[in-house]
What we know:
The chain has 159 residues and is an all-alpha fold. The protein has helices at residues 7-31, 41-63, 69-77, 83-107, 110-113, 143-157.
Amino acid sequence: MRELRSSSFWRAILAEFLGSLLYALLGLGASLRWAPGPPSVVGSALAFGLAQATLVQALGHVSGAHVNPAVTLAFLLASQLSLPRALGYLLAQVLGALAGAGVLYGVTPAPVRGTLGLSAVSGGTGGLGVFDDRHDGRPGTAAVPVGFSLALGHLFGVR
């Protein structure tokens, strides 16, 4: 419980909230059909990938920049994260993503808004892991592969 009283714990929670807010806002905002014609899968993939790479670089030293409950759960199950921190991250990520989607909903005209970027993923996609403290301990080195793998996943798996 001492962890709950540390300022680094609350900075990390705030970083996960802000990271999730920005990720949802930027990624979903780029997925919307702002101009007539087919949606740009490449633009959407790059937006999500670059947003994630930027967030890993900017927030990785504070919280690890998980920005995704699945990543946080994986770290918890791998004993790389304490239960209180994992629960704080999960709550911050959900609330941050909801806040980001809410901001986007509020600033986007109804004809552009549509389903707010909801998409389907193609079958047969798998996981990819690139961030492991046991390698060199520098989260900045994970920013590029995390962002690129996310962009490639979108290009491959999003219709």
